[in-house]
């Protein structure tokens, strides 16, 4: 067997190694890679297109195009209920605030309401509304005397009736209504009211509850006794007058027979 020299073997190995390296470097690029490269470059260079959206429905387009309400208008609209309330209140006639004797009477009537009713409709006590007070007491002096003294003082003095003895429907007697007694209201008769408070109470009953017209038939009485400018009320309030003063001889604190429109004042 012939032995191959070492230098020939080495040359053979070097040639093989060099040939494999050239084959590897000269190997063809796969067709798919070469074809994909231009496509990728074209895709990178082409700008992205926005997706095409469907047009809005007519009602959606109308809602989007509708003008929005300004914020300041919303604040104004929130105040509308208050403006409406004030407007309605402005349309309603405002009742004049009571003053003078009637204002005092309003404060005192609560004690009377338990018997005569909050509106004067009656109950344990007689009806006061719808002109009943004027029918029974054509003269305010008689009503003041009755309210001041009450049932027991009239009975003790032997005075049989109170108010107008010729009253339509018959005279009123101290216990003729449900057997109830009228409590005395005057301070000297066992009650708790002063003379000016009793005047205020009677004025409130006659003009607010019973409905006397201060500008009509009862104008003279109202001006003298129950108006805010009443000199009698101011005199009773400051203590310069009382029901027994000579100027008020028609009142008095002693129970007495009432008077009618055609009858002089008579002491009981």
UniProtKB/TrEMBL annotation:
Q: What keywords were assigned to this record?
A: Heme, Iron, Membrane, Metal-binding, Transmembrane, Transmembrane helix
Which Gene3D superfamilies does its entry note? Cytochrome c-like domain
Query: Signal sequence: where?
Result: none
Query: Residues annotated as region Disordered?
Result: 1-58
Biased composition of type Basic and acidic residues is found at 1-17
UniProt biased composition (Low complexity): 18-48
| Residue spans crossing the bilayer | 69-88
Q: Tell me the ranges covered by the Cytochrome c domain, including all copies.
A: 100-209
Put simply, this protein is called: Unannotated protein
Database matches in InterPro entries: Cyt_c-like_dom, Cyt_c-like_dom_sf
A GO MF label: metal ion binding
- Which organism's genome codes for this protein? freshwater metagenome
